[in-house]
Amino acid sequence: MALQLGDLAPDFEADTTLGRLRFHEWLGDAWGVLFSHPKDYTPVCTTELGYTAKLKDQFEARGTKVIGLSVDSVDDHHGWSKDIETTQGVKPNFPMIADADRKVSELYGMIHPNASSTLTVRSVFIIDPQKKVRLTLTYPASTGRNFNEILRVLDSLQLTDQHQVATPVNWESGDDVIIVPSVSDEEARTKFPNGWDAKTSYLRVVKQPGS
């Protein structure tokens, strides 16, 4: 069965470009983004890995570790990194898992037989500090992933975990948010003393906490 939101992210031990690691131990108390690639030396993923490396400071500011995966070897990963640096201006500055035996791919449901019986689909998993899966995305081979959206989701998850709010359509950090229905008006007056805009009884818009 495919991993679902709220499931415990499977632990594993694997060789990576930064040495052998055990996933849960490596994550520690951080948030994590695990994303897979069908194989090395693929054009769309080359652009993705370069762009992700450029976001290092952005992920660190969110207390988040990034790790990639491909079914090829560590040696192939290192070779591919040279091409990524040449074409994208930066090489990956995060570990890339070598998953030749498909062990991790199978644990995370990254092999979709209707797409390929051997290569991983291009999946993204956001994992919280309790090692729970909080987001899953799977992209077609022809469409590059939007890592700005992944950062946006991280911002939303971290904000909504801390406050009893939800983020509306097209929300960006700093925009107004929504008080969740489980919070009564009485509770909301304590939590949000500056008040809110009640569009309906269940749609209560409030300034983003801390903004």
Give an overview in words.
This protein is of the alpha+beta class and 211 residues long. It folds into 2 domains: 13-145, Glutaredoxin, CATH 3.40.30; 163-206, Antioxidant, Horf6, Chain A, domain2 (Antioxidant, Horf6, Chain A, domain 2, 2-Layer Sandwich). Helix content is 31%, strand content 23%. It has 7 helices and 11 strands. The chain has helices at residues 23-27, 43-54, 56-61, 74-88, 103-107, 147-162, 185-191, and strands spanning 13-16, 19-22, 31-37, 64-70, 96-98, 122-127, 133-139, 165-166, 177-179, 197-198, 204-206. The strands form 3 sheets. Strands 5-4-3-6-7 form a 5-stranded mixed sheet. The protein has a 4-stranded antiparallel sheet with strand order 8-9-11-10. Strand 4 (64-70), helix 4 (74-88) and strand 5 (96-98) form a beta-alpha-beta unit. It is elongated, with a radius of gyration of 19 Å. The termini are far apart. The mean pLDDT is 93.
